[in-house]
Amino acid sequence: MKNSDIFTRILSLLCPALLCCALQLHATPARAGSQSLKQMLEAGRYDEALAGALKVLATRPDDQNALYAAGTALFQKQQYAEAIVHGERLYRAKQVSSDMKAQAAYIVAFSALNTGDQARMERYGKAACARFSPKDCYAIYPALMKISYLKRDMRDAVECASKAIEGLTAVRDRQSDSQWLNYIDSNVAAAHVIIGHSHYQQRDFGKAVSSFRDALDAGGGNLLRAEAYRYTGLSLRTMGKINDAMVAFAQGSKAGRNQHSTASRKQLEELYKSTHGGSLVGLSKFIRVATSVDP
Q1: Per-residue pLDDT tens digits for 216-251
Q2: Above 90 in pLDDT, residue 7?
Q3: N or C: which end of the chain has fewer CB within 10 A?
Q4: Which residues contact 120 (CB under 8 A, 6 or more apart)?
Q5: Alpha helices, DSSP H only, in the chain?
Q6: How confident is the model over 78-124, as pLDDT tens digits?
Q7: Which pLDDT band holds residue 34 (cuts at 50, 70, 90)?
Q8: What is the rounded distance in angstroms from the CA atom of residue 163 to the CA atom of residue 27?
């Protein structure tokens, strides 16, 4: 199993429009700045909020309310590098409240997702998730899940995967456009696959099958589907359920053209020959039936 198989495209799904929605999940903190700055942010008047915040910072460079307003406005204007600068200044400010510090971490983490800064995303993402709910951190948890998985820290990856499923499920109905639904479904499927791999590695094949089937129910692209079918088949084969394993491999072999569909076809041929006297006669019909394609 290659660590890069599942998550090659997760960050590419985190488009700016979707991330902007995430910051709007929060009520502004108790000390969000002057009433005018707060009203500007709430009204989406980000240019005005930024100008006002920068005016304050010109004379009071450590003003926490102005740093928060500037960071939020810059994020919403998709000026992520500058948002990170102001967010980190707020995070490191002296005597910063725990709530304001968490807000700063949130701004930096989401901005870092857009700049591809994995180190910052991991550090500040964990700080934000420690304070906010999975629903608020619905886009952070899939990225943290990826990072932990690539580090082979399966315990942390599974924990992040579970939180990702919780958060993504909670926000799924916010919009109905296809890009949003694809983002949600792909990441939920990836999270279930991660959990399935954890069970598979622990040789708990029954739970592995359940998780991979949850991934298939969630949706996702052909690569994820092929991987879920493949490891469902491998789990079922180990459990001695040969015919069920062959069906899973048949379904995986038809899930696009990728390393997992190729591996599923190979596994299917091996099992089919072992149960049909070394012959592949009738395999095409078996695949058609298994994938519900009329002959």
Answers
A1: 999 888 999 999 999 999 999 999 999 999 999 999
A2: no
A3: C
A4: 84, 108, 109, 112
A5: 4-7, 16-23, 35-42, 46-59, 64-76, 80-91, 98-115, 118-131, 140-150, 154-171, 178-201, 205-218, 222-238, 242-253, 259-275, 283-290
A6: 999 999 999 999 999 988 889 899 999 999 999 999 999 999 999 99
A7: low
A8: 21
Q: What is the DSSP string of 137-171?
A: TTTHHHHHHHHHHHTT-HHHHHHHHHHHHHHHHHH
Is there a contact between 258 and 223 (Cβ–Cβ < 8 Å)? yes
**pLDDT surpasses 80 at 12:** no
Instruction: Report the alpha-carbon distance of residue 36 to residue 108 in Å, rounded.
Output: 23
Contact 276, 21 (CB under 8 A): no
DSSP type of residue 204: -
* φ, ψ at 276 (rounded to 5°): -135, 40
Domains in the chain: ranges and CATH: 27-131 (1.25.40.10), 221-295 (no CATH)
Query: How high does pLDDT run on average in the chain?
Result: 87
Token pair, residue 160, equals: 């992040």
pTM of the predicted structure, to 2 decimals: 0.83
